[in-house]
Fold this protein.
Amino acid sequence: MESLPARDRCSDVLPLCSATKSSSRGHKIECLSYCLYCFRCELQIKKVRLAYFKGFWNILDIVVIIMAVCCTIFCIYRTAAVNNKLDALLSAPDVYSDFNSLAYWQLVYNSTLAIMVFICWVKASHHHLFANCNLKKTTRSI
């Protein structure tokens, strides 16, 4: 039986062709939204200068941006590390490849992402709550 090149064997083992394309598209959209979020924060910081950092919700914005940058960097690292490990594994299938460190960092990534989503949800809920309260005050005054 003829041996297949590593990339052909990889596609047999991990059929990720369409998932990789949609995942890449998702990462691009995610990075674009991070850039827009950073741009919005940058405009506010330029507008109010150091007073921006006195508000609790503004500090949460900065925390979310830092977490988003860390998650993006991890995604790039994880993709490169998994590709390297898979190439090594496919070139020597009898050798044990240890994915424990990648599994640990995936857990850290998932936790960071969950915290980031929670903070964004709390912030959105806070803004929604106060927007409704202001609307009620406005209608009462009429």
In short: The chain has one domain: 18-141. Residues 1-20 have pLDDT under 50 and may be disordered.
